[in-house]
Design a protein that fits this description.
By secondary structure, the protein is of the alpha+beta class. 31% of the residues lie in helices and 36% in strands. The chain contains 5 helices and 10 strands. The strands form 2 sheets. Strands 1, 7, 8, 9 and 10 form a 5-stranded antiparallel sheet that branches. Strands 2-3-6-4-5 form a 5-stranded antiparallel sheet, with helices on both faces. Strand 8 and strand 9 (185-192) form a beta hairpin.
């Protein structure tokens, strides 16, 4: 419908750090490297690093997806027949379910390094090989859910800060740490960006501090939940 703007996602899934997985198909080696990235430069840096590390390999095919809305999607066949490597790799990323019916994997780069084994796989075989390489790598990687959160600083005296921080954690609040100032401690917390969540938090905080602490807004941020 014209004039309707889709809402930005409040959450998505990425991976934790870097992960490697190797697959052998008809004597060809397919070494997949996944890395969490946030920019195109970081994704292209991974390709460059692997070209140096595996300098004697024939192909260094790549695909990456960036942003909460997955607005940046790129792929490269790197010398393989057109459409047989990069696009199957990209589809393996964007179609991967991170939960039943949920396809939200992003901020991820995948590079498949291929050592040719002397047996031709054909176009269909290459598509399956590159797709399976990335799919299996993602299946064995640690996935990290991310959520857009509202940040707050909860002020507390030095004497009660430790107790309050523990009680907040016990109550299920995401605590990001604490900043110690000369006359107070600021306990940093993150809440789901929803009005009802904020209202419930204010009520919890009032009960824990007998109404003595008022959370100070610190903007919004994407936060890892695992």
């Amino acid at each position: 419908m014209e004039g309707v703007i889709a809402a930005s996602p409040a959450s998505y899934t990425t991976i934790g750090g870097e992960h490697r997985h190797e697959l052998e198909i008809k004597r060809s080696r397919f070494i997949t490297v996944l890395r969490r990235v946030e920019t195109e430069d970081e994704a292209r840096a991974l390709v460059a690093e692997l070209r140096r590390e595996f300098h004697d390999a024939r192909h260094h095919c790549s695909a990456f997806v960036l942003g909460p809305e997955r607005g940046v999607q790129r792929s490269s066949d790197d010398g393989e027949p057109s459409g047989t490597a990069g696009i199957p790799m990209l589809e393996a990323l964007i179609k991967r379910e991170t939960a039943p019916g949920v396809t939200d994997l992003s901020d991820i780069a995948a590079v498949v390094v291929r050592y040719f084994g002397g047996i031709l796989l054909g176009a269909g075989g290459l598509v399956r090989a590159y797709s399976d390489s990335v799919s299996q790598a993602v299946a064995t990687a640690r996935l990290v859910p991310r959520r857009r959160m509202r940040l707050f600083a909860v002020p507390a005296g030095h004497a009660e800060a430790g107790r309050l921080e523990n009680e907040l954690r016990t109550a299920g609040i995401t605590v990001l740490g604490a900043d110690y100032e000369p006359h107070r401690v600021l306990i940093k917390v993150a809440l789901a960006d929803q009005s009802e969540v904020l209202e419930a938090f204010r009520a919890q905080l009032a009960a824990l501090t007998s109404g003595g602490a008022e959370p100070e807004p610190r903007g919004t941020e994407w936060v890892d939940l695992a």
